[in-house]
């Protein structure tokens, strides 16, 4: 069924996609993790992938299933990503942090809940939009993490007052690099 959908995805109407969504959502509950992971990988980059199926895969507790759609699928709404970022573990947060174009509501949660790896990934994601609160939190965390300090300091959108604060808190080595 997945192969049939992928082969014709660009020709299907919303009604067709909805039918595939209903069928695949029923089947995905019965298949093993390896098959769900393959389904997620194949659906992640499809522009009109079945929405409920993508949401179901994104909420999967196994990162091998959730990861591909969290990183790539345009079918996930910001509210879905915020909910997942609020409730899932660090592997899920890391997958979200590498998405293109994540908004402030998402990055706020990622910075607040994420470990060092997630914070570095958010800071390194040039397409991520960061609020002043997220920038402030990253600057505070960067005091103890030179790698993070460099990533935050290299962002072109960092507010100037926070850049100055970052420089004042950074080690001498990091100050020279910035």
Summarize the structure.
This protein has 13 helices and no strands. It has 178 residues and is an all-alpha fold. It starts with a helix and ends with a helix.
Distance between the termini: 52 Å
Number of strands: 0
The radius of gyration computed from the alpha-carbon positions, rounded to a whole number of angstroms, is 19 Å
Low-confidence stretches: none
Beta-strand proportion: under 5%
Tally of alpha and pi helices: 13
Give the ordered list of helices and strands. Answer: HHHHHHHHHHHHH
Overall 3D form: elongated
Overall average pLDDT: 94
State the secondary-structure class. Answer: mainly alpha
Helix share bin: 55-70%
Main sheet characteristics? none
What does this structure look like?
The protein is mostly helical. It has helices at residues 2-8, 14-28, 33-43, 51-58, 63-72, 78-87, 90-97, 104-113, 116-124, 132-142, 146-153, 160-169, 172-177. The longest helix has 15 residues, at 14-28. The protein is elongated, with a radius of gyration of 19 Å. The termini are far apart.
In terms of topology, how is this protein built?
Layout: H1 2-8, H2 14-28, H3 33-43, H4 51-58, H5 63-72, H6 78-87, H7 90-97, H8 104-113, H9 116-124, H10 132-142, H11 146-153, H12 160-169, H13 172-177
């Amino acid at each position: 069924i997945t192969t049939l959908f992928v082969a014709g995805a660009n020709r299907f109407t919303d009604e067709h996609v909805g039918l595939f969504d209903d069928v695949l959502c029923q089947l995905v509950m019965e298949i093993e993790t390896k098959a769900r992971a393959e389904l997620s990988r194949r659906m992640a980059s499809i522009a009109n992938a079945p929405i409920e199926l993508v949401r179901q895969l994104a909420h999967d507790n196994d990162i091998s299933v959730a990861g591909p759609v969290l990183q790539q699928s345009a079918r996930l709404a910001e509210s879905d990503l915020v909910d997942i970022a609020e409730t899932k573990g660090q592997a899920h947060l890391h997958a979200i942090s590498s998405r293109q174009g994540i908004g402030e509501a998402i990055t706020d949660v990622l910075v607040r809940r994420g470990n060092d790896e997630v914070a570095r990934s958010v800071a390194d994601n040039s397409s991520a939009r960061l609020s002043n609160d997220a920038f402030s939190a990253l600057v505070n965390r960067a005091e103890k993490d030179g790698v993070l300090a460099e990533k935050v300091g290299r962002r072109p959108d960092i507010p100037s007052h926070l850049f100055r604060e970052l420089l004042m808190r950074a080690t001498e080595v990091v100050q020279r690099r910035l």
